[in-house]
Amino acid sequence: QVQLVESGGGLVQPGGSLRLSCAASGIIANINAMGWYRQALGKQRELVAVYTPGGSTNYGDSVKGRFAISRDTPKNTVYLQMNSLKPEDTAVYYCYAFIQTILDSRSRDYWGQGTQVTVSS
């Protein structure tokens, strides 16, 4: 019913930059929240950056000042600009969205398949 498709991951050297994209498609009535989480090997999934239902943004403490989330609302797409990358940013990055479809008045969580970001020299 709904698909989240991520792109833009890869290998980058410390101090470098990457830009991730996530496009939502399907029978979407309303996107209430959308953003990014990440999960490093052996660790729990954590917030990176997200647009809240009110339209504001929340960032994880470890990425504040280095990462920036943006969106193209007509295209149902969010972006994550990652600057000054560190080895500890290495993780699988997952797109997340809280979406109401045209078939159900209740919104639910959707996740992308994940894209690997590796920061290494």
Give a concise summary.
The chain is mainly β. It has no helices and 11 strands. Strands 2, 4, 5, 6, 9, 10 and 11 form a 7-stranded mixed sheet that branches. Strands 1-3-8-7 form a 4-stranded antiparallel sheet, with no helix packed on it.
What does this structure look like?
The chain contains no helices and eleven strands. By secondary structure, the protein is an all-beta fold. The chain is elongated and about 45 Å long. It starts with a strand and ends with a strand.
The strand count comes to: 11
Q: How far apart are the termini? A: 40 Å
Poorly predicted residue ranges: none
The percent range for helix content is: under 10%
Structural category is mainly beta
**Strand portion:** over 45%
Key terms:
single chain; 121 residues; mainly beta; 7-stranded mixed beta sheet; elongated
List the helices and strands and how they pair.
Blueprint lengths: L1 E6 L2 E3 L5 E9 L1 E12 L6 E6 L5 E3 L7 E6 L4 E6 L8 E11 L6 E4 L3 E5 L2
